[in-house]
Sequence to fold (674 residues):
Amino acid sequence: MSGRIERKFRALAERGEAALIPFVFAGDPTLDHTRRIVLELESRGADLIELGVPFSDPMADGPANQRAGARALRAGASVAAVLGLVSDLRKETDIPLVLFGYYNPILQYGPARFAADAERAGADGCLVVDLPPEEAAELRGPIREHGLDLIYLLAPTTSLERARRIARAASGFLYYVSVTGVTGTRAELDSDLEPRVREIRTITRLPIGVGFGISTAQQAGQVASFAAAVVVGSAFSLLIEANPQAPERAVGELAGAMKAAVRASASASVRAVSS
Amino acid sequence: MQSYPDRHGRYGRFGGRYIAETLMPALVELEHAYRAARRDPKFKAEFERNLRDYVGRPTPLFHAANLTRRLGGAKIYLKREDLCHTGAHKVNNTLGQALLAARMGKRRITAETGAGQHGVATATMAALFGMQCEVFMGTLDIERQALNVFRMKLLGAKVTPVDSGSRGLKDAMNEALRDWIATVRDTYYLIGTAAGPHPYPWIVREFQTVIGRETRRQILAAEGRLPDLLVACVNGGSNAIGLFHPFIKDSGVRMIGVEAGGLGLNGPSHAATITAGSVGVLHGARTFLLQDELGQIRETHSIAAGLDYPGVGPELAWLKDSGRAEYATITDAEALAALRTLSETEGIIPALESAHAVAHAIRIAPELPREQVMIVNLSGRGDKDMQTVAGALGTGLKE
Fold:
C-alpha cells in the first residue's frame, strides 16, 4: 500500500473528524488549472482529491459532470496526461490522490501498464464507475501488485449481503452513492441515507465516504456526522464552469466552507471507525 | 461447441456486466426473473399467442424470383420481418420484454431508439399492456425519423430528445441508462438490441430467435434442405443473431453480417464496428467498438439511423472471433441502390438498415452457383425512410 489513504483516514479518525474529498475532472478547464485547483483545495482543508479521468460516454453522470468531462476531453486529458498531472502534483503535495473514471480508457491504456504508471506517478488509488467487483479481476491484480487501492461503489440498491462481498474486495475506503441516480447537485439529502450508512458501517472496518448530490456546506456537515468522508463533485464542476479564467478562488471558498462544516460536525461515527 | 452466455454473461471474451453499482442488483433481478419466465409454460404460451395474433407471425419466407433472375446466381429468399406489426423485427423483442416487465410488476418501461423502430415497438407494447412509456432519442435521429417520432407520440409515449454527444443512438442509450439509474426500482429498461450488460444480449437473442426457427422450418419445407447462406445487417445486431442463432451448429450454413460502411471505411464516417473497430467496454459490455486509441468512443455515421451505433452485440463479436460468422460492409450509396433495386424488382421497399443486407446479396449472388440458396433477413420496411431516401436521391417527397 502506498498508505497515504489509510494514514489520512487514521489521522482524521484520531481527531474525530471526517474527510472532505473534492472531485474535479483533471483538465477542467485545463490540466494546469487542475494543478492549481488541487493545491488550493488542499490549502482550504481538502483531505483527499478525486481526479476525474474523462470519458466520452459517462453513463453515471448528470449534466454538470457531463459538461465538465467534455471540457476536460477538449483539454486533452487522456489517461497518460492525467498521470502526468499526478506526477507534477507529487512534486508539490502529499495529499492522497484517487483517479475516478470509466473503464474503457484504462482498458485501452492497459490495466497492468496503468497500475504501474499510476504507482510511479504517485497516485494512491482508483475508482472505476462501470467496473463492479465481478468484472474487476484484470485490474484488481495489477492495482494490488502496485500497492494502490481499488475503491468500490455501494448504492442505495445494494443489499447488505452484496455490500459485505464488495467490502471484502475493496481497500482504501468504500464510496456510498447517496442517491438512486446520477451525479449532480440535489436540494435535499435522502432521508434513508444516514440509516443506510450506519447499517453498512456494521459490516466493514473500511471508512465510508458518501457522495453524489452533496453540494452545500450544510449538507456536507450533516453527512460528516455519520460518515467518514464527504465527497463533493458536481458543485465544483459548476463553479469551474462559472469561473473559467480563475476557478481556484471560488472552488477554494466552497471547499473551505465545507471543511469548516465538516469539522464542526460532531463525528462520533468517525471515532467509531478508528476503534 | 460451448454454449453461450456462460454464467458470467460472457460469449468468449465478450459480454459481461460492466455497469454502475446502482444497476447491478436490478440486472441480477432481471436475470432471475427471466430464468423463471422462460421455464414457465404460461409465459411461453402468452408470448407465442401474441406473436401469432398481434405481431402476425409466422412472417413469410419469400422466394425473390425476380431478383434471383436479374442477378443470375444464387437463389434468394427474403425473410419478411418487414411484415411484422409496427414494421420491423424489433417487436419480437419488445413483446417478450414487455411481458417480462409485466410479470416483474413494473408499470413504466423506457427505451432508447435510433431509427425509431424500437421506440415505436416499445410504445406499441406500452399501449397494449397499459404501461407508461418514455423513449430516449438523439435529436439528430428525431430530425431524420420524424414519422416514427409522430407514431410514438400517437401511441401515447413520451419522446425525450437527447442533445448530448453525437445526438444519435449511443447518446440515447447513455440517457436511457442515466434515467434507469434514477428510476430502477419501478422502471423496466427495455433494450432494443442484443447488446448492453448481461442478461440483455441473451434475453434479446432468445426473443429474436423466432426469426431463425421459423426460417429453418420454412426453408426445409420449400427446399428440403438447409440454406447455404444467411445474410443480415448488423449493428447492435438483434435481427442478425435472431436469424443466425438457430443455425450456429449447422456448419454448412455460412452466416454473413453486413455492417454500415457509411461514406467508406477509409474515412471516419461509418459504423463498421466489427470490421474496423477494436475491443473495448461500453454500455455494459465488452465488445468491438469504434474508438480512438485513448479509449474515447468515436462518432459514427450511417444513412440508416438504426445502424448508427459504435458497438455491436457481444455474441456477434464472438461469432467473429470464432470464425463462425463473416462480416462485410456496405456503403450508404450501395444501400440506397439496393433499396431501389428491391423496390423495382420485387415491389418491396426495405428499410435502409435491411437494404444493407440486400445490397450484399446483390453483390455476391451473381458469383454463386444457381444451386445455392441464400436467405436475406428483410428486417424492416422502408416507409420510415422515405424522407431520407428522397433527400439522398436529390428529389423531394413531392416530386
User: Anything to note?
Assistant: The first strand of chain A starts at residue 19 and ends at 25. The domain at 3-274 of chain A is CATH 3.20.20.70 (TIM Barrel). The beta strands of chain A are 19-25, 49-53, 97-101, 125-128, 149-154, 174-177, 208-211, 229-232. Confidence is low (pLDDT under 50) at residues 270-275 of chain A.
